[in-house]
Amino acid sequence: MTTHGGFEPVFCTIVPPHVLDKLAQHEDPALSGPARQTLERDAWERTHRRLTTVIGAPSIAAPVASDKPQRTIYDARHKQDLPGKKVRAESSDPGKDATVNRAFAGLGATFELYLNAFNRHSIDDQGLPLNASVHYDVKYDNAFWNGEQMVFGDGDGELFLDFTIPVDVIGHELTHGVTQYSANLTYYGQSGALNESVSDVFGSLIKQYTLGQTAADADWLIGAGLLAPRVSGVALRSMKAPGTAYDDDALGKDPQPATMDDFVNTGSDNGGVHINSGIPNHAFYLVADAIGGQAWEKAGQIWYDVLTGGELKKDALFADFAKLTVAAAKARFGDGGEELQAVTKAWEQVGVPTS
């Protein structure tokens, strides 16, 4: 593992820190308690991630680049020790625990999208085993990729439900692993927002692939089904309409901008990585919508080419990424096609230059 340009090693959670920070101040302990506990646990895991980078992760048996995933699910049994008790392996039949089954299926859906759409063999393209722990801690309001495995909380039941419910959450977090093994984008500022956006893009594509949806069919929401019924909102983020996913007394209002006109300058959340990711998210949606059809075939292919092509710098700005998508669209689909026109127009619409 590497140290990402001098910043903290990537530790990403699906629920942004600014949401948990607001909840931690709520007067109702049923809401503030789990949020505070989650923030404390996230801080510990973030430190652990940094130490793992310094001293090295446990060795893993050399994987084989197979066309079949190697999945293992563990039950943390509401404790904090990872990975927990092994409860399902690749050869196992589904059990009675729906959370275990959803995690297993979500790992498989992610593997399948990357294999079938992009000929990528697991997260590292070398057959890396996919491990996940469910039922982590008590009322833990998050899910994360820690550089080695997936971890899912059950949610507090008040605001957040089981984090294995949305398959795009699973795909989002595992895609941080893909980025880790490819472009390795620095998790700060615009490069950090690109890191987050790439995970949203492929998380959404994994959901669309699983459901057999076209770009027109898709809801373009990240985390739909995760929010409890009492919450005024539909998801954590919207790629189609950033800033509209939720507007709730407890969670606050979705702060994501859709264009550079509303770019948020902040020192929190690693320079607003979960906030300003709305801008490249919206650009991808516009590209996919303009091209039509199944979004992983063309729009997704362009984004994947940039992520894995070797030219994307760790500290890339939005404009750097945008220029590379234009080049990738030309290289794969030619100068005169709708793909290039869609990419160029999309970045123009969100206010990011491509020339």
TL;DR of this structure?
This protein has 355 residues and is an alpha+beta fold. It has ten helices and ten strands.
Architecture blueprint of SSEs:
Elements: E1 12-13, H1 17-24, H2 29-55, E2 71-75, E3 85-89, H3 98-118, E4 130-134, E5 143-145, E6 150-152, H4 167-180, H5 189-211, E7 221-222, E8 237-238, E9 247-248, E10 252-253, H6 269-272, H7 278-291, H8 299-308, H9 318-333, H10 338-349
Parallel strand pairs: 2-4, 4-6
Antiparallel strand pairs: 1-5, 2-3, 5-6, 7-8, 9-10
Helix pairs in contact: 1-2, 3-4, 4-5, 5-7, 7-10, 8-9, 9-10
Q: How does this model look, in words?
A:
The protein contains ten helices and ten strands. The chain has helices at residues 17-24, 29-55, 98-118, 167-180, 189-211, 269-272, 278-291, 299-308, 318-333, 338-349; strands spanning 12-13, 71-75, 85-89, 130-134, 143-145, 150-152, 221-222, 237-238, 247-248, 252-253. The strands form three sheets. The protein has a six-stranded mixed β-sheet, with helices on one face. Strand 9 (247-248) and strand 10 form a beta hairpin.
Main sheet makeup: 6 strands, mixed
Percent of residues in helices comes to: 40-55%
Question: Which range does the strand content fall in?
Answer: 5-15%
Spatial shape:
globular
Average pLDDT, rounded to a whole number, is 92
Low confidence ranges: 1-8, 51-59
Number of strands: 10
Structural class: alpha+beta
If strands are numbered along the chain, what order do they take across the biggest sheet?
Answer: 1-5-6-4-2-3
Number of helices: 10
From the N-terminal CA to the C-terminal CA, the straight-line distance is 34 Å
Rg estimate, integer Å: 19 Å
Order of helices and strands: EHHEEHEEEHHEEEEHHHHH
